[in-house]
Amino acid sequence: MISQWQLRAAFAARLSDMYGREVPAYTTLVDVSRQVNEDVLRARGADAERLGSVGRVTAERHGAIRVGTPGELAQVARIFGALGMHPVGFYDLREAAASAVPVVSTAFRPVDGAELARNPFRVFTSLLTPADPRFFDADLRARLETFLAGRELFPPELLALADRAEAERALPDADAERFLHLAVSAFELSPEPVDQAWYATLERVSAVAADIGGVRSTHINHLTPRVLDIDELYRRMADRGIEMIDTIQGPPNWQGPDLLLRQTSFRALAEPRAMRTPDGTVTNGALRVRFGEVEARGIAVTPDGRALYDRLLDLVDRQAARHPGLDRAACARTVWAEHVPATEQELAAQGLAYFTYRVAADRPRDGRRPPTGVAELLRQGWIRADPLVYEDFLPRSAAGIFQSNLSGEGSRNNEQEGAAYDSAWLSGALGRDVLDPYALYERQQNRSIAHVARELALDGELG
User: Fold this and answer.
1) pTM for the full predicted model
2) Which family, according to the similarity comment (predicted)?
3) DSSP of 348-369, one letter per residue?
4) Are strands 122-128 and 61-67 parallel, antiparallel or unpaired?
5) How far apart are CA 171 and CA 162, in angstroms?
6) Alpha-carbon span 240 to 75, nearest angstrom
């Protein structure tokens, strides 16, 4: 029997191989990422593995896909459910992007610490929002929904195998092989000709909308390796002549602890696609929809830590608006140095980030009773704090990556009121709960605190 985590690891590896064949620059990105990770490990030693072993980091991927209907999203959930992946977080990219990005998203990923350690594969999954009148008038919405209703993204055999794998938490060898073949094939770029006129109609609204609703299939949009030094990766990719987007999205590169997530990508490439013209002729064309993203993951922050992050982003935005030509990266580093604690211990003491705690091997042994607060236990050396890796996404960064790779801004009518989508709506569409990432991190942290309390005989006292 092939367990869910083994299915997940095999799916991630095969998807990576497939995407490398389709987008050769992705293979370059993976190679450069591996070289950077090896160099960082040699330079920093054990400290380089503070947020995960180099083996995990080098094997780690996140993917991104896009679907058009709640029904398609529910089918995606069944496929990823077979891999032990759950929907975590609600992201509204419509509000995070200045240009037209008419999607809401969630991320499918493992949620248990042991499962994440085995293989942390995650897939950022976006759903088109045809009901939002800011992007789609009534006529275009009706045409789009009719088109989407007439396609089948995932064969019934794949869905049946997925349901079995989720229910039984494993598949026999032959069925596992069949499931993996069908699942990877479902995300390959289809050779079917694209309806040129229909695609262009949607592209005038949004290139993202055209990529989702302008074709009769879905495909992997990007696959993202993890790197330990994203600034060095950016330099090396540019040195190889690969055109990168203008910025690294997310927090700045500064001297303090790495928080949340930093991302960048190479620009979307013109890929040959067969196009069907209005008279039925099939011609050679090209579309720019897929790109190569890379990420550096930091420490997961609490709601208070996230509020601080958002305030600092807003502060940098205001300063950039007041001073055109400002070096935004330098400004952000200065702002972070002024407002963000410079050590992990202080992050923990202020409740700004999540950690797991363990009793220190060299804790005091002089008969003193340990203090009853986590911060004081940490300060006095009774316990050690290990940071929890941020396993999720930042909507503004995701939207920034999307926007940087679009060929145009699209159109958005802000005089219309946007359609309401939220986590509860998405849970209903999925037929399963969208989990709260903060609750998942807090659960891991609280388990470790309970273990510390038992070991130090502080049950019922540790707060």
Assistant:
1) 0.94
2) Belongs to the 2-oxoadipate dioxygenase/decarboxylase family.
3) HHTT-B-EEEEE-TT---SSPP
4) parallel
5) 9
6) 40
